[in-house]
Write a structure and sequence with these properties.
It is built from 11 helices and 13 strands. It is of the alpha/beta class and 340 residues long. The protein has a single domain, classed as 3-Layer(aba) Sandwich (UDP-N-acetylmuramoyl-L-alanine:D-glutamate ligase). Strand 12 and strand 13 form a beta hairpin. Helix 1 crosses helix 8 and helix 3 packs across helix 4. It starts with a strand and ends with a helix.
Length: 340
């Protein structure tokens, strides 16, 4: 296996219903959708998320294989998680969850990543090194694991969220890290606790993506820009915020940029933010800005580069929103849309 991108977080089955359609089941979960988005953009992807040995779990396994994604974990004895999504007349989704987010230990997960590294013929481990060692890692080759994305329920819900945090700490020396809070108050109703948990991940990440809904729920007392500024001061190199039909905005140390939304006939918005995240990471990888060895260059990302990232990611989100369900674009679809 050559250098790959990894995603850690929940995979589940979405049961989507609206006033005008019967319930339909399909595989989802924000991290899973990001993994699919990256695979469709022609990146090698490893997905670390649990699933049960049941009908829904087998549906997830088939979806991973169909997308060419390597599953780090085998099915376990607990039921597969389920999200029931109800669409309003505008296509916006609200969710109810039945979840199990228990992972193997960080040691076990690291061992599995190391097995992938040994299979690829790489020397060294895939995730070795603690967060505190990052200053010594800047001139090292990033090894097989180039980037690790985490977020959503998988980085909020215990006990698995603590394991995700520990995996990030181990991976930081070899990989860049991205994080999307995708905050769900129904799962973590205590805002102060959710904010503390989110900020622990923000301080560990290089790239942050959130929606204005996330910002409003986590920090209702301050403006979106104030929150972006505060997050950037915690250590990340790039903060992006999606604004639905109002487009997106981003902030780096070089400055601020905005991107209008592309005009499409919206089928629904399920997975649009995840397609935005996948296209963001794909674009940054194309700029040679992912991997621990490129962390200094990522910190110096320009506003022109930021504008390119926002434009590409917004176009990917628009393509997703023009289709029912989480359907990220392929590389060919995105390239064609950008040329138009």
């Amino acid at each position: 296996m050559s250098s790959y991108l990894a995603v850690i977080g929940e995979c589940l089955v979405d049961v989507v219903q609206s006033e005008t359609s019967a319930p339909k089941a399909h595989v989802g979960g924000s991290p899973f959708n990001v993994a699919v988005g990256l695979a469709r953009l022609e990146h090698e992807v490893v997905f670390a998320g649990r699933r049960g040995d049941d009908e829904y779990g087998r549906m997830i396994a088939r979806s991973l294989r169909a997308q060419g994604i390597t599953a780090l974990l085998e099915a376990d004895a607990s039921p597969t998680s389920v999200a029931r999504a109800t669409l309003d007349p505008t296509g916006q989704a609200s969710y109810e969850f039945t979840l199990d987010w228990t992972l193997p230990s960080a040691d076990e997960l690291e061992a599995k990543f190391c097995t992938l590294a040994s299979q690829s013929g790489q020397s060294g481990t895939a995730t070795e090194g603690q967060h505190s060692q990052n200053q010594d890692s800047q001139n090292q080759d990033s090894g097989p694991l180039e980037h690790l994305h985490a977020g959503s329920i998988g980085a909020m819900l215990q006990p698995g969220a603590e394991t995700v945090k520990n995996v990030i700490d181990r991976a930081y020396a070899v990989a860049t890290v991205s994080y999307d809070p995708n905050y769900r108050p129904t799962l973590v109703p205590n805002r102060d606790e959710a904010r503390r948990q989110a900020e622990e991940f923000i301080s560990r990440a290089d790239i942050i993506q959130a929606s204005t809904d996330d910002l409003d729920l986590l920090y209702p007392e301050r403006s979106h820009r104030e929150t972006m500024d505060a997050w950037l001061q915690m250590g990340p190199s790039l903060v992006t915020v999606t604004r639905g039909p109002s487009g997106a905005m981003g902030l780096t140390r070089a400055g601020f940029a905005e991107q209008e939304a592309f005009s499409v006939e919206v089928a629904d918005t399920v997975g649009a933010g995840d397609s935005f995240m996948a296209a963001t990471l794909s674009t940054l990888r194309g700029m040679n800005l992912l991997g621990a060895a490129r962390r200094p260059a990522l910190r110096e990302i320009t506003t022109d580069q930021l504008s390119t990232v926002l434009r590409t990611a917004a176009r990917a989100a628009a393509i997703n929103s023009s289709r029912f369900g989480a359907q990220p674009p392929t590389a060919d679809e995105l390239d064609h849309a950008l040329r138009d």
